[in-house]
Amino acid sequence: MSDGHLYLSARGGADYAGDSRHAWYDATHQSLQQLPLDASLDPVEASTAAVSSSAAPLYNFTEPETSDNHRNTAPQRSLTPIVLLQLSVDRQFLAIQRSDIEVQVVHLPSRASYWVLCKSKAGNRILHGGVVWNTHSVKASSSQDLFLITKLGLEHHRVSSKRRSCTLHRTVGLYVHEFWYASSHGVLLVSSGSRANEIAPFLLHGPNAEKLPKLVFSTSVSKQDLHLVSLYGEMYAVYSDTRSTKLLLYLIGRTKVTCVRSLNVMLPSGTALEYSVVDNLLRPILSAFADLGAAAGASSC
Question: Exposed e or buried b for every residue in 94-106, given b needs 16+ CB within 10 A?
């Protein structure tokens, strides 16, 4: 791959010690991306730095045959910590989370930088992984929409290279315990409520965030209790009721969220489950296959 050492980050990235690069899995593009961490991206050294290469795919999971190793290196390493990197859908903007309250947005063609701070309220901070781009435009555009998911809600920022600005467009106030996001469908689920038992769904399509009717459960919903999966081109939320042996499947539509299946997986209550999808089959790791169309023990909600 390159000379030096590879370090995997618990926050989802990888650093190459010795050649000044950072790599991360970009869910929006379903690929490993890498970026030279030269000083042109560093707020301290940017004034004296030379412009480096843009972010480039290291491995594309949708087109594995086109993937290749990239050996270009940069002369200088970024000095400021990087928590998270997210590339916009049109690959024109790069969001670099520098701390739990601050994000640097770089327009890659011009290397112009804009800064975003989450709202300065007591206890507010950006949640882990809570920097996402809206599917505003796949084609190269002068503006894109960036969302920060914080403890106190959603912050919608509009980034414009034409206006050379990054402005707060809208906020949605709610206390957030956990969140789930599927970039392929622009679906965001937020756990809220005093008991963490309310799920607020959002559709991040176009220039706005559309809120759907919320789901209310009898007990709190943890990160492990709920998963987003794509089946037959549709997005589903899979809820595992730890007090029983059932899985509940909710179809996330354009206007509402509907419970469409109740699956009995024949496991002891309290069993933790993970899921994978192969050929539109939902596969709980500790259970047999479950097909939406013909699953044993399947029933309507």
Answer: bbbbbeebbbbbb
